[in-house]
Specification:
alpha+beta, four-stranded antiparallel sheet, globular, disordered N terminus
């Protein structure tokens, strides 16, 4: 699915007064699609999938640009913690940030001139944002890029994380870090499709809602789109 918006939903819509993506109608849930089998989510299976990738296409890959600026490279880390039940580390951004404030995201950011490649960017940003030491991380592969309407070309870097890792959050950027079972994220019965008519255009996006105890972790926009692509990669 190419999200054909004049502005990316998680950037523009979140600036509307009192906008709540949770309240936008769900137009579909993909319960008819198979979940990724549990054994395919084990560390060795994930390593092998990247060593011998299948033939597949990403489902969500681009938003129509709305900013007249030069494209910029960025990376995010998709950190899979190697617990008995593999878990994915996600962050909640602080509310004072100018973009994507309060939203759930992967650790990551813009590439620096001193970064050697996409993985270097992802690892550096993860260490800066959540204190995840590169020595605790094994990069196993990359997903296709996801281009935002602000012309950030984001490379998701998938990595395995030692279960005894320690996190130290950058309080300016990250309000919280938490884990979600990879099995939950790779089950399309939890992938909700939303649509909204706004400013003369139809906006569509995915969301994934996870209850972390009594706290709802609502994943939507680009982060949910990249997780959807990861599902398509693992289920191909």
């Amino acid at each position: 699915m190419h999200i054909d918006d004049s502005v990316p939903p998680e950037t523009a819509l979140s600036r509307l007064p009192n906008f709540d993506p949770r309240a936008v109608p769900v137009i579909g849930i993909d319960s008819h699609l198979p979940a990724v089998p549990r054994d395919a989510l084990a560390p060795d299976a994930l390593r092998q999938r990247f060593l011998a990738p299948p033939s597949w296409e990403p489902e969500v890959w681009s938003e129509r640009k709305f900013a007249e600026r030069e494209p910029a490279r960025a990376s995010v880390l998709v950190p899979v913690v190697m617990r008995e039940r593999p878990m994915v580390i996600l962050t909640e951004r602080t509310t004072h940030l100018s973009t994507h404030s309060g939203q759930v995201a992967f650790p990551g950011g813009k590439r620096d001139d001193t970064d050697t490649d996409e993985a270097h960017t992802a690892l550096r940003e993860a260490q800066e944002e959540i204190g995840l030491a590169p020595s605790q991380v094994e990069v196993i592969g990359q997903m296709p890029t996801y281009t935002t309407g602000t012309r950030f070309i984001i490379t998701p870097v998938v990595a395995l994380v030692k279960p005894d890792h320690q996190l130290t959050l950058n309080a300016f950027e990250v309000a919280d870090a938490f884990e979600v079972p990879l099995e939950f994220l790779m089950n399309p019965a939890h992938h909700h499709r939303h649509a909204l008519e706004w400013a003369g255009h139809r906006r569509e996006w995915f969301s994934i809602s996870y209850m972390d105890g009594s706290t709802e972790r609502f994943i939507w926009g680009a982060t949910a789109g990249m997780l959807r692509n990861f599902y398509r990669f693992l289920s191909a």
